[in-house]
Design brief:
Blueprint: H1 12-21, H2 34-42, H3 48-58, E1 89-98, E2 105-114, H4 119-129, H5 131-134, E3 136-141, E4 144-150, E5 153-154, E6 161-167, E7 170-171, E8 186-193
Parallel strand pairs: 1-8
Antiparallel strand pairs: 1-2, 3-4, 4-5, 6-7, 6-8
Helix pairs in contact: 1-3
Length: 194
């Protein structure tokens, strides 16, 4: 993509490894990786799978080089943990929308969560405030929790349905366990097909 993103933030690690490992096959021009690496540097990775895929590229290696990496690192290299600061609250607007199956619905709420909270925290707060409307279920994946049901409406691979999360009309590039909404951001969960 024009901004340096290769696929999405989850595919960046493997894409960078592949492109770096095959650099000599890009004739007659070299692959310019600076823009792609700037996307990686500006992202705050939290999921172990994403970190495991992007870390080799950041040190100029690929999984093929894993056997030659020296893992004897000193614990003194780790910075001390910062002391917690008082939490500022942000307001996040959250909508759930189904215009696809069964009885259609649209519900919207506004919740307050500590600044820096994940989208999962927003969903949990909405459910705590109005459990009959904003109930949801997740399933664990190697990339973090995946929302599989909202308001009793479950995603179904046979029907090719899923819950898509959007902000400003754009699909989120991170999962609910890592995406951190901004103050007054409007997140929509839309029951969709693929």
């Amino acid at each position: 993509k024009g901004n340096g993103m290769i696929g999405n933030i989850y595919s960046m690690g493997l894409a960078l490894q592949a492109l770096e490992a095959t650099r000599k096959f890009y004739a007659p021009r070299n692959w310019d990786c600076a823009q792609a690496f700037s996307v990686v540097y500006s992202h705050d990775y939290h999921q172990p799978m994403a970190i495991a895929q992007v870390l080799p590229a950041l040190v100029g290696k690929s999984y093929l080089d894993a056997a030659s990496v020296n893992c004897a690192a000193s614990t003194s290299m780790c910075p001390p943990c910062p002391s917690p600061l008082p939490e500022d609250l942000i307001t996040v607007h959250y909508s759930i929308i189904n215009k696809l199956q069964g009885k259609h619905f649209t519900f919207t709420t506004s919740v307050q969560v500590p600044d820096g909270s994940t989208l999962l925290n927003v969903l949990q707060m909405a459910e705590a405030e109005e459990p009959d409307i904003f109930s949801f279920q997740t399933e664990p994946t190697s990339w973090g929790p995946m929302v599989v049901s909202i308001h009793g409406l479950a995603a179904n691979p046979d029907d090719r349905t899923y819950w898509q999360f959007l902000s400003g009309g754009n699909a989120l590039q991170e999962g609910v366990g890592t995406y951190k909404p901004e103050n007054r951001e409007h997140i929509r969960a839309v029951f969709s097909t693929y």
